[in-house]
Amino acid sequence: MTDPALPVPTPTSEPPARFETSHTGRFHGVEVAYRCIAGETHLPDAKGAPWASIFSFSYLADSAAAHLRPVTFIFNGGPGSASLWLHLGALGPRRVEVPADAAPTGSGPYSVVDNELCNLDRSDLVFIDPPGTGYSRMLGAAKPNECWGLDTDAAVVADFIKAWLTAHRRWASPRYLCGESYGTTRAVAVAGKLSSQLSGVAFNGLALISAILDFHTARFERGNPLADVCFMPTYAMTALHFGLAAAPDGQEAFLDEVRQFAANEYLPALFAGSRMPPAKTQRVLKKLARLTGLTEPWLERTRLRIEPSRFRKELLRDTGLSVGRLDSRYTGRDYDDAGEFPDDDAASYGMDSAFVSATSDHLTRVLGIDWNRPYVAFNRDALMQWEWTAKAGADSFRWPGYVNVAPTLGRLLRENPHLKVLIANGLFDLATPFYAVESTIAANGIDADRIRMTYYEAGHMMYLHDPSLAALVGDLRSWME
Question: Which of 277, 57, 41 is nearest to 162 (CA)?
Fold first, then answer.
């Protein structure tokens, strides 16, 4: 039986839907008249028959020289997430207001306001929902999971971008890609596909918000110390935020100490394991406790390993609170205080209703989309069925592996001397921590001088924090210039 909450395959004879509205807005002090084209793009299969329908939201400023205006293609991640978070949270012409202090949004009504920080004065914006998310779907006999994988997802988004450039006569425009979370993985994979095999679509810039490129940095498995080390600086920043660690010489000095400890003491200790002399182990233990706010007895029982869900439950255990995953500034209460892991992510349930409700209102009331079809904010089936590696042939063998698109980013930078890359990091992000991407850049043959790294006093969705949103947009604008 088909799940009524998900987009379903439809007959290919149905024409692409299109909803167009006209608007005006004031962005960065500039009055802008613009259109929003919310609609489907039907992509053909190898035989030319429509097989995938990608729904996108194109915000296009009225301009006599539209063909020369920059265009930014934007998506979120998941995998399985629609683009509503960046659309209504940071980069679209309207945004939902949430408390900047990590307080939960609670029940509606939620305030949706004109987003004066929107970059529509400088770039047209295209928000993309991959198949199975938003209103995007497969057509005919095609199944949603045909596009649920690292390679197939990148291919269908790349095909959409080429189709969009052709349909809107925008091949002369400067082009930017902006992704968040798994969307950063997608952005690099898409750019790699569009720049290889004479595809001929080079990008001016890649904006990677809360990036994860090498998934081994987040793979908590016995015997892999890399993830513990990559997450540890975020544990330390969280402890500092809650007053459980001290920074007498300021936050920057504290971060320098944490980074040095992670690389030069913590990683060697985990790698040495039982080979580590007891005296050295005790020195590392004491320092780890001081920096992370966790107790020495607890760290000794975990063999110095700190899994993020355990950390989220343990750090504030004495207060009966657990901290958030997407943003560790958020706190929540669980069924009991004795468990090993939090019941849920306080950051997620603290703001998701505001985003989903605001998006539904924006799409139906402001953009005039009058479908009965639901807008799928997150498709868990896509996440659970995602094909993380290319499939091996029946007569070949493939070693188990993990996703790492960082070498592709290195190739893109080597082959395109004008490509600009910005990586935006939340200091309280326990999903894609900042030290993990720093380590990825250092270890994968990437010219770090070509990467602009920015940091914000918030989490995975740093735009939930108003000062960080303003800083993020300012960084994006100066980087694009």
Answer: 41
Closest by Cα among 263, 266, 233 to 251: 233
- Asked if pLDDT for residue 392 goes beyond 80, the answer is no
Its sign, for the CA torsion 273, 274, 279, 285, is positive
CB neighbour list of residue 198: distance below 8 Å, 6 or more residues apart: none
Among residues 274, 324, 318, 272, which one has the least CA distance to residue 298? 318
Sequence length of the chain is: 481
Q: In this structure, is the dihedral angle defined by the CA atoms of residues 283, 288, 291 and 294, taken in order, positive or negative?
A: negative
pTM value?
A: 0.94
3 state DSSP class of 387: strand
The β-bridge relationship of strands 137-138 and 50-61 is antiparallel
Nearest to 269 by CA among 280, 258, 257, 259: 280
CA of 307: how far to CAs of 103, 150, 303, 461, in Å?
Answer: 25, 26, 11, 21
Of 356, 415, 405, 351, the C-alpha closest to 195 is: 415
Distance, CA of 41 to CA of 337 (rounded, Å): 50
- For the record, the structure tokens of 128 come out as 């993309």
Tokens in use for 67?
A: 């063909």
- SS3 of 424, please? strand
Hey, which bits of 317-419 come out as E strands? Answer: 322-323, 331-332
Mean pLDDT of the chain: 93
Give Cα 261 to chain centroid, integer Å: 27
Q: What is the DSSP string of 168-225?
A: TT-TTS-EEEEEETHHHHHHHHHHHHHHSTT-----SEEEEES---BGGGG---TT--
Predicted pLDDT of residue 6: 45
Hey, what domains does the chain have and what are their CATH numbers? 18-215+352-480 (3.40.50.1820), 217-347 (no CATH)
Per-residue pLDDT tens digits for 405-452: 999 999 999 999 999 999 999 999 999 999 999 999 999 989 999 999
In eight-state DSSP terms, residue 306 is: -
Dihedral (CA of 253, 255, 258, 260) sign: negative
Q: What span, in angstroms and rounded, lies between the C-alpha atoms of 184 and 353?
A: 24
Measured from the Cβ of residue 292, the count of other Cβ atoms closer than 10 Å reads 25
